[in-house]
Amino acid sequence: MAKREFRRTVAEKQKGLRLDLYMFRSGMGLSRSQVENLIRSGLVTVNGKVVTKPGYKVKAGDEIFAEYELPEPFELLPETREDLPIIYEDEDIIVLNKPPGVVVHPARGNTSGTIVNALLGRLEELPETGDRTRPGVVHRLDKDTSGLLVVAKSQRGVRSLARQISTKEARRIYTAVVWGRPPIREGMVEAPVGRHPIDRKRMAVTPFHSKPAITAFRVKEEFGRVASLMELELLTGRTHQIRVHMEHYGHPVVGDPVYSGRETRKIFRVVPPEEREKVAACLEIMGRQALHAARLIITHPAKNYRMEFQAPLPDDMERLLEYLRLSYQKSSEAATS
User: With the C-alpha atoms ordered 217, 219, 220, 225, is the resulting torsion angle positive or negative?
Assistant: First the structure.
């Protein structure tokens, strides 16, 4: 890691810009999200005083200072992957059904085996997005979340898709299995999401250094009091949003290793203790979070018509639902016999 110093005086023509945008545009070598994290971490001063709000509006004459480390650049290597699960492709976009366990884009310590590496092997180049490690990437899925991912193949695609996601014109709808039986069948979880105050690798519902986050949900099927099949739609797009919101709501995603989906102490707050055998069976089936990006609705960047894509559930979630349906059917039959 190379140590860097950032020292600038805000010019008259730049006054009124957000602090994170001003610093990003000044060529620090960091992505805007990295600049934002730098500010929130208290590593940026304005006129000698620490400022932790990325939205601070800079004034002419402000003295901005920061010390930070710049990761050594790594090369984005194209890779050949014959089983790239492409659902749709044209000159502007490519839509994939991402398998669980695959990372979307390279990062420090994980520079190969990603969707971006495979796409570079197929297409040779992808359009810039402002972050050299994420060419063409306008939204992401967690490594162990499966389902639909749209990647831009042109600058027109980048601009259009980024705008659609920002304005909520694009719709991203997920299928999940959660523990327990939610008290209402349809509603919204509206709670701000930010970095966990202690464990910085996790996200959390917190009022500190967070952003508004809204998830709409609908219960589609209940399996006694053990688990529920849900449809969830992102109305905002925060990191780990659905997983964090379901934990906060008290019904973690089944199998989630980070957000209480494998923590029996929290599972049995919403699942009766006599269902221990079913809980253990569910955890044996799901080695990851039972979360799948099932539907994606966008407007085509060039042709301007709406497009809807659907991806079937992966095998592990199908097996989980098969087990739950069979178990619930047997329980119902036993109760009525």
Answer: positive
